[in-house]
Amino acid sequence: MGAVLGAWLLLLAACGPPATAVVGPTPAAVVQTAPPRPAGSATPSATAPATPAPSVAAPPSPTSIQTALPPNTAAPTTPPTATAPPPTFTPPPPPPSLAGEHLLWPRPVPLASQMWTDKSYPYGSTRGGALRPHTGVEFGVGAGTPVLAVAPGTVVAAGNDAQLAYGPQTDFYGNLVIVELEGGAPTFVLYGHLSEVSVAVGQTVAAGDVLGLSGATGVADGPHLHFEVRVGANDYSATRNPLLWLVPLPQTGVVAGRVVSPSGELLHEAPITLRRVDAPAAYTATTSYALGEPNSDGIDENFAVDDVVGGFYEVIVDNGRRRFTTELWVYPGRINWVELVVGP
What we know:
This protein is mainly β. It has 1 helix and 16 strands. It has one helix spanning 2-15, and strands at residues 137-139, 146-148, 153-160, 175-181, 187-197, 204-205, 210-214, 225-231, 239-240, 252-260, 271-276, 284-287, 303-309, 311-318, 323-330, 335-341.
């Protein structure tokens, strides 16, 4: 009977799963061929009663492969699928500065105020066709904010434009100050919609001098400062994009360029979006200059956007039927040039 039982146990071991199919840890007892006896126990004699054959509900032989987990052992888990590390972006060496670049002036409002420009109505924009092409940029400061000279010069206009038009009509800028800057080509800076004027015609001013206080006079839909640059003549038709003259805010740069057709024709009011690739960033968008008063600034640009945090960007123009893209590294403290050719 013992021989029959031994043969049955060997048959169970031979029919068990191979070693590679072990699900849980194999206990040390698996190498034993019989359960250990308590210390001091006698070896069973031949006359001892025969051990009854195990029933089908008996636990498996210790020589079989264990497939059940020991008590208090957590079920093995499938290791997580390895994910590829995010790509790294190493900026190439910056290209040479753009010929004609002149980021010269501080912001015309105090450090404690809203120093960034309004992105909903930038230079050259019509705000989606709702307004005339913009010939300056806006600082959305509250009424009564000091307005500062950005460079030394001489005041050539101070007061209001109720009698003499400095724009497309009288009472357009309301209370304004115009300063002709020292040196170089004739350059004029206009500060419009003031609530109060603090200087007089003929007065010389230095950078940082207070010219007046911001307001909402003239054609204005609320308190702000209209800031305008004119080159060559003190005339509404001689404006340039102020974003190409103001020093960028810390850690930001200016993106400027051209949106053209395959034949090189400038495209007006094309929507331009900058999507940062290497890190999260705020939504940044603008449009190319509208047809009319806006002028390029000697670098043949037809759009510019400021306050762009340095990094790697995709520049996108979507004409409603096709999407045109190119890539651009933005370096802080400078103009970053890009050109997009938009087909039919």
